[in-house]
Amino acid sequence: MTRYTAVTFAPVQGFIQKSRKLRDLDGSSLILSFLAASICEHYHQSDSIVIPAKIDLTRGVPNQIIIKGEIPEADISALFNKAWTAIVKTCQRYIEDRLRNSPNSLNISFDWKNEWNNCCNHSWELFCASGADFNAAKAAMATRKQSRSWVGINWTGESSSLSGADAIAWNQMCSFNPTNSIPRTEIDDFYKKLSKALPDTIIDERERLSIPELIKRLITTEDVRQHLRRHHPDLPDIEHLKTFNQLNRLDRDDLDRPDESKASRWTGWFMGDGDRVGKYLDWVRATATSAGKDSDREINQFSEQMSEWSANLKNELPINNLAVRPEREGLQSNNLAVQLKKDGRIVYAGGDDFLGVLYRNAPDPDLQLSECFDNFWYKFPQIWEKHGHTEMTVSVGFVWAAPRIPQRDLLQHCRLAEKSAKSAGRNRLAIRILFNNGNYLEWCCPWWCLKDILGGYQDRDGGKNWTHFYNDIAALNSRCSIDSTNNEVAIAQKC
């Protein structure tokens, strides 16, 4: 009988969460997809990949891989380590070359090779398990992940200003003796030189980044992408990101700027995935087998449809307005092209998992919460069903966040909001309004009644003042006139 091999790696959520800027989130997504694609592309050549299906994108490749056949872990580990090492070494060489060729740092020396090597060898843990069939391989993977073999690296000096989990990267970090005082002036000087040496001002001189954080930031630049492609043509390509100019305001606001007016806008963050996808896959396999079809092919087709859906999700974001711009450089002003401006960005979409943000930049008016629902969330059930598997539902956590909340906190609240949607019964949207002091309001609602409740409500004056409704319910509760444990009031209000 044909055996199957399940592959994944960790940490994934932790790697994404240790990000402060949207650029860092995009970099995390690109790296995770690149690492998964480095395994998939090799075994797609023999047509032995069941999940994920082969598509013409390296962005959004899921990190859960099922291969037909029993593959030695050493073979998969070699592919994975080769891809990650290529990224790390490319970024290291790129930084060193840029600094050595910069007029401000011609005589700079480096004593940090060991730390970059540690990053190559101890950043990830690969899990590989085989089974007699598809489900047995998944079960063996779940068991394998319970036995961890993690190696932690002790670092010296101060932690980075973003995650706080790793040491600040600077050119003499391996020669630093922790018994001496921290060389703040040398670190300050290094980041001044680094911010000037790198293109597109992707690093502010006041930032203090670790090596993994530098890698996330650099992998989003076209220069590093070209270096990686030139020196490692056998590895998957990395998507070229062209739309970071619209994110400059959000990225600048992450730093402590004195001008508070630059960070006065609310943003909406959302995270979601399909409900009970594992059980749905079991149903697909059972249905295909009973019909005499190739179950592996049916699951591969499902993976392909989900991958195409996630790749097109960015096109479903709400449109702000039409921006007019010159079609090409050198044309007269009457030769203009129309460009659609979207109120948001999909940070990551891989299969049924996705993460995104809704925002609007100046000089356009502030994005309102009501616009998010009118232009996106009321339509999302129909957007979800475009992949064709209407039997599978989706749960999403949506966080409407006040300005200047740290991005790592936003991601954590997104994850908790998604968990609330799952625990409340699935097939729901959990809405969490997050304030600067950490307090929040949360409400879960099934998709099918979301529009009726938010769009159809009227108070006793014919308006939409929800305070009236709240006060009436509070007054009835105080008189013990209603049982707040059932939903009769909500049903009666809807009717």
SSE order and pairing:
Blueprint (H helix, E strand, L loop, with lengths): L3 E7 L2 H5 L4 H23 L4 E3 L13 E4 L4 H28 L12 H10 L2 E7 L2 H11 L39 H14 L13 H8 L3 H10 L16 H6 L13 E8 L2 H14 L4 H18 L6 E8 L9 E7 L2 E6 L2 E6 L10 H9 L2 H5 L9 E8 L5 H17 L4 E7 L5 E7 H10 L9 H13 L9 H7 L1
Parallel strand pairs: 10-11
Antiparallel strand pairs: 1-3, 1-4, 2-3, 5-9, 5-10, 6-7, 8-9, 11-12
Helix pairs in contact: 2-3, 2-7, 3-4, 3-8, 10-11
Description:
With 495 residues, the chain is an alpha+beta fold. The chain is built from 17 helices and 12 strands. Strands 8-9-5-10-11-12 form a 6-stranded mixed β-sheet. It has a 4-stranded antiparallel β-sheet with strand order 2-3-1-4. Strands 6-7 form a two-stranded antiparallel ribbon. Helix 2 (22-44) crosses helix 3 (73-100), helix 2 (22-44) packs across helix 7 and helix 3 runs antiparallel to helix 4. The longest helix is centred in the first third of the chain and has 28 residues, at 73-100. The protein is globular and about 75 Å long. Residues 245-262 and 327-334 have low confidence and may be disordered.
Number of helices: 17
Mean pLDDT: 83
Runs with pLDDT <50, length 5+? 245-262, 327-334
Largest sheet: 6 strands, mixed
According to DSSP, the number of beta strands is 12
Note the overall shape.
globular
CA radius of gyration is: 25 Å
* Helix residue percentage: 40-55%
Q: Within the largest sheet, what's the order of strands?
A: 8-9-5-10-11-12
SSE order in H/E notation?
Answer: EHHEEHHEHHHHHEHHEEEEHHEHEEHHH
Return the structural class.
alpha+beta
Strand content: 15-25%
End-to-end C-alpha gap = 58 Å
